Amino acid sequence: MEQRYANCWRLTVNEKKFIESSLLSELRVDGRGSLEYRKLSIKFGKDNGSAEVQLGETRVMSFVSAELVQPYKDRPNEGTLSIFTEFSPMADPSFEPGRPGESAVELGRIIDRGLRESRAIDTESLCVLSAKLVWAIRIDIHILDNAGNLVDAANIAALASLSTFRRSECSLGGEDGQQVVVHPPEVREPLPLIIHHLPVAVTFGFFSNENLVVLDPTYHEEAVMTGSMTVTLNANGDVCAIQKPGRQGIFQRVIMHCLKLAHVKAADITTKIIDAVEKHNIQREVQKVKRHSNCFTD
Amino acid sequence: MEYVSPEGLRSDGRRPMEMRQIRAEIGAVSKADGSAIFEMGNTKVIAAVYGPREVQNRSQQMSDKALVRCEYSMANFSTGDRMRKPKGDRRSTEISLVIRQTMEECILTHLMPRSQIDIYVQVLQADGGTRSACINAATLALADAGIPMLDLVTSCSAGYLNSTPLLDLNYVEDSAGGPDVTVGILPKLDKVTLLQMDSKLPIDILENVMQLATEGCKAIANYIREILLENTKQLEYRRGS
């Protein structure tokens, strides 16, 4: 509640006016076009399922972990997927330690809706023993540096970490066939998650002047803009989630125009994520090969 | 499961483009500055508005506009299984935020600097579309409180099941796992302020579903306008002029 106006106060009236008037002449403070993304880089950690995404100056880290739990009673054959967000006070002066604030909850819900409701992850394959044991996948998203557009960065981080995550293989044994054996990664190769599609979030910013639409708003633009819309869609053009939480009203044709733009951008980002994941996978395979130095001597 | 029968009827006997019965009542809470009850079929919501009044927490005071606060809650008895839900869970925090930002757009906050407006909405019966019902109830309550507004915001949901766009989903249709689009519009300006959607839907179908929900919003706006007019006539009559 208190953090909602925090970054508005940090900007002076002159700065706000400057941003707005330069936008009117199709200029952005960081020199981008109005429908251009900042530079995106995806790095992976040493462990499976950790990724760090840098979108311009915004940095988000995501970590995926899994544990065996009892499934929900109404869904005995499905694993679970939950998302936790952590807004570190280090990343932005308006983030306060303690319970997640409104913006943290909203961010988590947008990513959650995009991933879960569109069934991007196959949860039925996470079932080990019906009604007894399923894998619970947990995504922890940490904001390391807030320079605007956290939603898109966090969403990309979540997707990247999910794509590289490997869970230990399980098999059923024992006399009654009900004993669960978890194989350590050294014994059996851990399995990746089954991901049907990658829902990518694309955020637009709107300003009091109706004709201004900006893609991937920065921290300063966020302070000036009067409304935003996040569209989550996959490369096939299926819309998985939309979040336009009130504020500035816009015409329906503008929304449709934004959806079409978002489709193109989502396809771009999807290829970037897939490329990065593939590169990481190759690197990991290469590291696994044990070389004996004397083999290559002659 | 079949949500639209071959005859073109839904589980509760409605046509795909039909809305549930709506009913609204102004003045449900006597202590509040403005209040309303809004019903959409079996979904029933009560809203109370306090303010504009002095800001309770000085640090939140703004010198150029009013502070709007909103709290959404669901009564324990509102759903089929009576569960004690922790206050401030993620869902209700998000809905509170969405309702607040939607109402903020239509309230002329710059006319009431250094003051605060509180909106409390509670779901008494939940049968799908609680978010929309809450926004409609809040609009009525704000109008009842005499708070200056740009326009009446109204909201309605629509879905897409069995390859048919359906207006105003009930709980059974909502929990079917199909797409659910909630739209909030400013009917006079014809602008969309709230748009939420989940599940999966191709862009061109989404456009149709959104259009359907917008039509629903406009129908609700007409009804709300009638109710407000009726209420004003009553007030005038009681004044005896």
UniProtKB/TrEMBL annotation, chain A:
Any Pfam family: RNase_PH
GO molecular function: exonuclease activity; mRNA 3'-UTR AU-rich region binding
InterPro entries, per the entry: ExoRNase_PH_dom1, ExoRNase_PH_dom2, ExoRNase_PH_dom2_sf, Exosome_comp_Rrp42_subfam, PNPase/RNase_PH_dom_sf, Ribosomal_Su5_D2-typ_SF, Rrp45
Subcellular location(s) of the protein: Cytoplasm; Nucleus
Main location: cytoplasm
GO cellular component terms given for this protein: cytoplasmic exosome (RNase complex); nuclear exosome (RNase complex)
Keywords for this protein: Cytoplasm, Exonuclease, Hydrolase, Nuclease, Nucleus, RNA-binding
Domain Exoribonuclease phosphorolytic as annotated: residue spans: 36-166, 197-263
GO terms of biological process kind: exonucleolytic trimming to generate mature 3'-end of 5.8S rRNA from tricistronic rRNA transcript (SSU-rRNA, 5.8S rRNA, LSU-rRNA); nuclear mRNA surveillance; nuclear polyadenylation-dependent rRNA catabolic process; rRNA catabolic process; TRAMP-dependent tRNA surveillance pathway; U1 snRNA 3'-end processing; U4 snRNA 3'-end processing; U5 snRNA 3'-end processing
Family of this protein: Belongs to the RNase PH family.
PANTHER family: EXOSOME COMPLEX COMPONENT RRP45 (PTHR11097:SF14), EXOSOME COMPLEX EXONUCLEASE RIBOSOMAL RNA PROCESSING PROTEIN (PTHR11097)
Identification of the protein by name: Protein ECERIFERUM 7
From TrEMBL, chain B:
Domain Exoribonuclease phosphorolytic: 18-148, 151-216
Molecular function GO labels: exonuclease activity; RNA binding
GO terms classed as biological process: nuclear mRNA surveillance; poly(A)-dependent snoRNA 3'-end processing; rRNA catabolic process; U4 snRNA 3'-end processing
Listed InterPro entries: ExoRNase_PH_dom1, ExoRNase_PH_dom2, ExoRNase_PH_dom2_sf, PNPase/RNase_PH_dom_sf, Ribosomal_Su5_D2-typ_SF, RNase_PH
Entry keyword RNA-binding: no
Keywords assigned by UniProt, alphabetized: Cytoplasm, Exonuclease, Exosome, Hydrolase, Nuclease
Places the protein is found: Cytoplasm; Nucleus, Nucleolus
Cellular component terms per the entry's GO annotation: cytoplasmic exosome (RNase complex); nuclear exosome (RNase complex); nucleolus
Superkingdom of the organism of origin: Eukaryota
Homology family: Belongs to the RNase PH family.
PANTHER family membership: EXOSOME COMPLEX COMPONENT (PTHR11953), EXOSOME COMPLEX COMPONENT RRP41 (PTHR11953:SF0)
Protein name: Exosome complex exonuclease RRP41
Gene name linked to the record: 11431768
